Amino acid sequence: MRTISATYQDPLDLIWIHAASSLGITIERSADVFASWDGAGTLRIGTPETLDADDSLAQMILHEMCHLLVEGPEAIHLPDWGLENDPSKIVHEHATLRLQAALADTVGLREFFAATTVFRKYYDQLPKHPLEFDGDPAVGLARPAWERSRDATWAEPLDRALGMTFEFARLLDGVAPADSLWSKVASARD
Question: Is residue 6 a part of any domain in this protein?
Answer without folding.
Answer: no
